[in-house]
Amino acid sequence: MKVVEWRGKPVWILRRTPEMLASLKKNDEKVADPNSDKFFQIETPAYAKNETRSRKEHEEVLVVVGICSHLGCSPSSRFATGAQPNLPDDWNGGFLCPCHGSTFDLAARVFKNKPAPANMDVPPYMFLADNRILIGKDEKGEA
Ligand code: FES
After folding, report:
1. What pLDDT does 143 receive?
2. What is the mean pLDDT of each run of 10 residues along the chain (143 residues)?
3. Does residue 80 line the site of ligand 1, with CB under 6 A?
C-alpha cells in the first residue's frame, strides 16, 4: 500500500492479491453498502460501483481517500486475517478506525452497524500507464 496526498487528504493505493480480492465476496452480506450506492464526500465514479470498487482493467488496485466517514479519523490497515483485538474472529483483512471502531473491508466498504455511515470515498482516477495513476481526474473530467 502506498499513501499519497491529494487536496490535503491521504489517498491510499492498495494492490490486492487474488486472495484479498476473493475475500471481498465473503463480505458482501456483512457490509452496509456493497455496491457503493451512497457516498461520503465524493460521488463514487461509475467504474467503482462494484464489489472491488476498482476499474475492471486494474481490478486489483484500490484507490481510496483514507478518511473515515464518521468523524474524519484515518483508519489503520489491518491486513492480517483471523481473530485479533477489536476485530471479529472471522476477519478477512481490511481497516479499523481507531477513533470509534468502524471497520472496513479491503475495498474500504464499511461493515454494518458501525458508526461510519458510508464507505470511504473513491476519488476519480485513471491509469496513464500500468504503473502510473492520475488522481482527481478521469474520462469525465476533473473532480
Ligand atoms: S471517526 Fe471513524 S469511527 Fe468515528
Report:
1. 74
2. 97 98 96 96 96 97 98 97 95 97 98 98 97 94 81
3. no
Residue 9's Cβ-count burial label (10 Å; 0-12, 13-18, 19+) is middle
Helix, coil or strand: residue 36:
coil
Tell me, in angstroms, the distance from the centre of ligand 1 to residue 113's CA: 12
Q: In total, how many domains does the chain have? A: 1
CA angle centred on 57, ends 8 and 62, rounded to 5°:
35
Distance of CA 122 from the midpoint of ligand 1 (Å): 18
Q: 134 with 128: CB under 8 angstroms?
A: yes
Cα separation, 16 vs 22, whole angstroms: 10
Q: Which atom of ligand 1 is nearest to the CA of 71?
A: 1
Q: Residue 135 belongs to a domain with what CATH number?
A: 2.102.10.10
pLDDT at 48: 97
Q: Is the CB of 116 under 6 A from ligand 1?
A: yes
The Å distance, Cα 76 to ligand 1 centre, comes to 11
Q: Do 137 and 126 meet the contact criterion of CB atoms below 8 Å apart?
A: yes
